[in-house]
Amino acid sequence: MSQTFLPPKWLQQLCNPYAVLGISVSADNRQILKRYHTLAKLLHPDRQAKNCNPDSELATAIFSRLINPAYEQLKHQPKRLMAIAMLRSDAKALEQKPLSSQSAITEKIMEMSTPQAELFYEEAIASYAEDQYKSLERFYQVTQQISILNLVYLRLHKPDLTLTQKAVRILPEVEVKPVELTLDEQTDLKPVLTNYAQRHYQRAIEYVRLAKWPLAVQELRDAIKLEPDNSDYYALLGLVHLKQKFIGMARVYIRQALKLNPQNSLALKYAPGLKIESYENTTPKSMAKAMSIAALLSRFSPGKGSQVKC
Fold first, then answer.
1. pLDDT (tens digit per residue) in 24-76
2. Which distant-in-sequence residues (6+ apart) come within 8 Å of 149 by Cβ?
3. For the whole model, what pTM was predicted?
C-alpha cells in the first residue's frame, strides 16, 4: 500500500478525531497532546525509517493522513468544539435506532449509574487504545469500535463537554474560606488552594462536611479532570462512595489513590475495611478487571449495520 493511498472508509474516520487518536471525548489538552506524542513515537516516518519496518509506508500514511489531521482538529479550541458538536449530532441520530441493534456495550452502560458508566467508558477507551496501533491492519476495526463507543457514551451520558474544556477560563473568582470538618477524617484531608483543581477539592470537602454526597462527587470529578494524578482526590472520592454504601466504587477509587500514592493516609485508613491490603496486592484484581472489560469489548464487532458515517 503506497504512502499516499488509504481506503476511503479509513479516511472517513476523521469525522471522529477522538476515535482516530484513541482518546475519550472528555480528553483535555494535556491528554490530547500526550496521546499524540505516543503515536508520533510509534508511527512517525523518521522512526519507521530507522526501524526498517515492513509496514512503514502504511504507518506513514496513517500518521500523515489521519493522526496529524485529527490532532490539528483537537488542539485548537474552536475546531474541537465543532468536532464535539458533530459527534453530538451523530449521537442524536443513534437514538433513533433500536437498542437491540446496537452493541453489548450499550446494554452494559445502560445498566450503570453515571459515575460507574463514566469509569467504565474511560477504561474501555484505554483498553481499545492499547491495541489500536499494535496491528496496523486492524487499525480500522478498532478505531470503528472506539467511534461507536464515543457515540454511545454521548447518547447515554451527556456531560457538558464545552464547559469542561473552558472550565479554567470561566470559573468565577470566589473567596474560599478554610473549612473545619466535623468528620473523623479531617486530619487526613489536605486542602491546599493552589489552583482550580484544589478549589474543586476544597468545595468537595465542604460538601462532605454537609453530607451532600452528589455535589461532593461532582466537585471531585472536576478536580480529577484537571489533575488526574492527585491521589487525595481519589481517596476522598472513595470515601464519599463509601458513605453512600457504594462499596464497589469506593474500592475502585481507594485502590487508585494507593496506586498513585501508597502512603496516602486517607486511603490507607479505609483500605483494610475494603479488603485492599496494599497496592501490590491489588495488581491481580486489577488485571482481572481489565480482562473482564476486554472480554466484554471482544463481544462487539461492528457489522455493516454499525458503520459510523459522517
1. 998 888 899 999 999 998 887 666 555 555 577 788 888 888 899 999 999 98
2. 105, 121, 124, 125, 128
3. 0.52
